[in-house]
DNA sequence: AATCGTAGTAATCAATTAAGTTACAGGAAG
DNA sequence: CTTCCTGTAACTTAATTGATTACTACGATT
């Protein structure tokens, strides 16, 4: 499978809005940072808006975080963007007349869900504020090297 | 992305080999249970063999588990099949001249790894023996209903 | 109000990946 | 030596992602 970068790009987008709050936050400018197209950015913002993480104004470059960064967890971004897709997928079509094929979904679904829940619990512990803080720390390291 | 069912199918395959040990374990028979093609089954078995989980004999329908089921964790199967692919992918191509674009990978990679490690820790706790046991329990429930 | 720049979104395209299929070389066993 | 099977490569098909194009509608500025 081609791995989706939507989740990663959404975090990028939100961090950008915070760090570059005093610039013109057009979808073009944000797209230039992510190195994608403005339409992709607007699509992601649409999802984030529907999830209540972002407010936008049609016609105006004015995206704004709907909550303090510290109250937006990576998990809430994940749900906003990929909430309907499991990290691990059970093969939905197996032979029901076989002992294995007829029961594997029920069994695996449960173990997969537990693994995903464990990952989600970790994502819930990190907020976008942590991400932004770390980005600034990394940037400071780079600056110090020069 | 179309979500891969290789991991799920591999667990299926190994459970099948155990539960139907006294039947002819041709790739055709296993494929019929997974409802896929024999070639797909042989491809999965090839990976499992390379990972030391399975032994096979060219020309003969004789796949056998290389270790007791209780010593094969879901995680080891996951590594055998999808070990090189992360559950969450960081966008590898962002603008390095931007504070966000230039540091997001470093920062996110770490959080993503922690989430994946949490999921893997959960997968490591479950063995194929657990899966087989559960499959048989589910089957017994079905039988009791009839 | 006219215009310009922007958001929102649908529709289409291109690239990638997964799984299915075909084909065939080679081993094992009767 | 014939038959059945595994192991693999090559190709096809289907699904998904992200990029692109095109358009409508909104808002600010003049």
From TrEMBL, chains A, B:
**By its UniProt entry, which InterPro entries does this protein fall under?**
Tscrpt_reg_Rrf2, WH-like_DNA-bd_sf, WH_DNA-bd_sf
Record-level GO cellular component terms: cytosol
List the SUPFAM superfamilies hit by this protein, alphabetically. Winged helix' DNA-binding domain
Q: Which Pfam families match?
A: Rrf2 (PF02082)
MF (Gene Ontology)? DNA-binding transcription factor activity
Residues passing through the membrane, by range: none
What is the protein name given in its UniProt record?
Answer: Rrf2 family transcriptional regulator
Organism the protein comes from:
Lactiplantibacillus pentosus (Lactobacillus pentosus)
């Amino acid at each position: 499978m081609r791995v989706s970068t939507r989740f990663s790009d959404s975090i990028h987008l939100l961090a950008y809005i915070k760090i570059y709050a005093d610039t013109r936050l057009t979808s073009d400018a944000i797209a230039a940072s992510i190195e994608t197209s403005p339409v992709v950015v607007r699509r992601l913002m649409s999802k984030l808006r529907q999830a209540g993480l972002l407010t936008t104004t049609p016609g105006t470059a004015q995206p704004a975080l709907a909550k303090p960064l510290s109250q937006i967890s990576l998990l809430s971004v994940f749900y906003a963007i990929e909430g309907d897709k499991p990290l691990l997928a059970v093969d939905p079509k197996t032979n029901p007349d076989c002992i294995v094929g007829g029961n594997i979904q029920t069994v695996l679904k449960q173990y997969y869900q537990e693994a995903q829940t464990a990952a989600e619990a970790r994502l819930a512990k990190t907020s976008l504020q942590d991400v932004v803080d770390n980005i600034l720390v990394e940037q400071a390291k780079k600056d110090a090297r020069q």
